[in-house]
Amino acid sequence: MSEGSGEGETTGAHTGMHDVFVSYASQDTALANDVAAALEGQGLKCWIAPRDVTPGAHYASEIVHAIDSAKAIVLILSKDAATSPHVLREIERATSKRHPVVTLRLDLAPLPAEFEYFLNTSQWLDASGADTARAMPKLVAAVRLAIARPATSAAATSAAPARGAFAPRALFGGARLRRRTAIVAGSLVAMTIAGVVAYRSWQPAHRAVSPAAPAVPAALAIPEKSVAVLPFVDMSEKKDQEYFSDGLSEELIDMLTKVPDLRVPARTSSFYFKGKQVTIAEIAKALSVAHVLEGSVRKSGNTLRVTAQLIRVDNGYHMWSQSYDRTLDDVFKVQDEIAGAVVKALKASLLETATPRSAPTSSVQAYTLYLQARKIWTGGTQADFGRAGDYLKRAIDLDPKFAQAWATLAQIRMDAYLYGEETARYREVRADVLESAAEALRLDPNLSDAHLAMGRLFNELDWDWHASEIEFKRAIMLDPRNTLALRSASSQAVQMGRLDEALQYAQSAVTLDPLQAENYSAAGYAYWALGSLKEAESFFRKALELNDTGPVYHYNVGLTLLAQGQASAALGFMQQESDSVFRQHGLILVFDALGRSSDADRELASFEKAYALSWAYPVVEAYAGRGDMERAFDWLDRAYRQHDVGLLVVKVDPLLKNLGSDPRYKAFLRKMKLSE
Fold it and tell me: What is the maximum alpha-carbon separation in the chain?
């Protein structure tokens, strides 16, 4: 609210029930009123002073009651608000009540320490230097999400590197991915203001207008104890040790994330800038960190030289640098020393006064093979999974007690099956995955990835919803920053129709890893299932912006446009889809919508001929969309016999809405042990 009217008695309106409390400095009154009007124009009731202060009431008392009863706070943050003791008290009150704060920042004036403290977990929309009217659609979307999801603890809003997770379909439909794309539910996170349609034209009558892609999430108030670990550079003579330099960087990220009070962006976000022509200052701004750790690795035979330096970004000061000349056998010791030096330089508090140590195996050779396997798995195609699995098996032969290798092997084996084109070897694959996951758990019952692997088996292969939920929650409890575990839990919540829960899990993943395209896809899937098509489209566009050559990203945007009645626009995106399966499936749907029946029939016949033995579920969607119930249910039964992974989302797939009233659909849900 405005602090400009003082804290005595005043005139105004009502308190009552409301969704949003608007906090602002008196110098920003006009904009604050516009914000309130925008929110209320979209059905979000606001409390703003002096308008809503009860006549004759005590000003401060009214404010306290209004803040306490609000579902979310919108802060208009400017240089004037940052110096206002009244605004500070309002935000302090809001955060003490665990209310979400969505901040619209008008300028880049430095924030006092008190504001940074109270706003370091809030959502931000950066409207500095831009037409603030263009921020309104994003602001409305951010507030809706803040209200929809329950407050979470700081521990629950972090995440870890992205990996395959369950990827049933591109958008609750489509085909098995040839390349691993995490397709899970997700959540809106604060974003910088990009060029979206202006507020004045963003009214219910213009809902068909597509917003432009949201930009990278805006920086939070940057904590002093924050560091991004950039990928170390491979300086080896043959430039063939990138897997090792990347692995060292990942291990350092993993170690530093375990240090209390230290903010460390996840691997995907830190690695996003690899090979790009950007400055350290630009990277730090995008990742909202005060420091970066960079370095190089030169490996020759069994000798190793690692150089690392910690840089304070705002002044370029080198806080610490060191070179290590060691044998390969000392690699874990080098990791410990670097992490310890970083922590000491930042003066971060340590758990039990010691830096978490990293020694997953006693064999350096096994560790090297493990790093090679992870490199292939992370960046390779479906065809590469077998090679990654072979590396892990060799690592396990060298060290049968290497629990992390067993857990990773389980997930790679599962991905090779789920995203391949074979379905005949289900029982054999399940036995292999179970053996590896169980061995990982036996060797290390407290390994988050081991519980994740077992949870994925229960979920993606066994369709045992209760058992998988237990394992996912255990994985998250052991490592709240495990992004894949968070996204897997989110995926399952979508499967079960618990969409608010899915949003909460995925919010955690997005918060720590804001440059991971899959996180934005996750948000899109959740909003798609909720029926919030505009929000879904925005997040799919953002995912496409971050990875414009990856599979399913064009398809997803096209599908949301199609659902909004924009078939011609959807056609362009489907034609650009890089994956042939998704491209063909998307064209079937678009041609049907455009009335091009002969083209749709031709594509569908071709699809059935090519993929009848492996990808039955997309055909179900095509016939369901046409209202051809008999063929839809025939293909649904075929998908069940083939153990088609698309059935994981059969309960919430919007493309199956025509089946909803048919008793056979309810019977099928019961067969899947899903509630009707």
Answer: 81
Please count the other Cβ atoms lying within 10 Å of the Cβ belonging to residue 262: 18
DSSP state of 459: I
pTM: 0.59
Range 496-515 burial, b when 16+ CB lie within 10 A, else e = bebbebbbbbbbbbbbbbbb
Signed CA dihedral, 537, 543, 545, 549: sign only: negative
Judged by phi (left if over 0) then psi (alpha if -120 to 50, else beta), residue 275 lies in left
Domain with residues 20-151, CATH architecture: 3-Layer(aba) Sandwich (3.40)
Dig out the tokens for 55 from the structure: 């006549």
Q: Do you know the residue count of the chain? A: 676
Q: How close are the terminal C-alpha atoms of the chain, in Å?
A: 45
41: number of Cβ within 10 Å? 14
Average pLDDT, the chain: 78
**Percent of residues in the chain assigned helix, strand, coil, to nearest 5:** 55, 10, 35
What digits encode the pLDDT tens for the residues 537-560?
988 998 898 888 888 999 999 999
Q: What is the pLDDT of residues 497-514, one digit of tens each?
A: 888 888 788 778 777 778
Nearest residue to 552 via CA among 540, 564, 563, 570: 540
pLDDT tens per residue, range 274-310 = 878 788 888 888 888 889 998 888 887 788 888 888 8
Helix segments in 212-301, DSSP class H = 242-257, 267-271, 280-287
Q: In this predicted structure, what is the pLDDT of residue 161?
A: 30
Cα-Cα-Cα-Cα torsion 589, 595, 596, 598, nearest 10 degrees, comes to 90
Residue type, 285: K
In CATH, which superfamily holds the domain spanning 227-347? TolB, N-terminal domain (3.40.50.10070)
Helix (H, G, I), strand (E, B) or coil at 328: helix
Question: How far, in Å, CA of 543 to CA of 184, rounded?
Answer: 13
Structure-block tokens of residue 374: 């992870």
Q: Is the CA virtual torsion 667, 670, 672, 675 positive or negative?
A: positive
Which of 111, 141, 131 has its CA nearest to residue 288? 111
Question: In angstroms, rounded to a whole number, what is the distance separating the alpha carbons of residues 658 and 661?
Answer: 7
Q: Which residue has the tokens 């034609």?
A: 575
Considering the chain, tell me which residue range(s) the CATH 3.40.50.10140 domain(s) occupy.
20-151
The neighbour count for residue 66, using CB atoms within 10 Å, is 24
CA 428 to chain centre: 32
Distance between CA 394 and CA 274 in Å, rounded?
Answer: 29
The whole-angstrom separation of Cα 673 and Cα 551 is 31
Residue tagged 């992390």 (tokens): 404
Question: Is residue 392 within 8 Å of residue 407, measured between CB atoms?
Answer: no
Triad 105, 515, 207: Cα angle to 5°: 65
pLDDT exceeds 80 at position 435: yes
Alpha helices in 272-422, H assignment, sequence order: 280-287, 331-346, 364-379, 385-398, 403-418
3 state SS of 259: coil
CATH 3.40.50.10070: which residues of the chain?
227-347
Instruction: Assign 574 to helix, strand or coil.
Output: helix
Look up residue 504 and give its two tokens: 């909460």
The answer, yes or no, to whether residue 156 has pLDDT greater than 90, is no
Q: Which two tokens stand for residue 632?
A: 């839809």
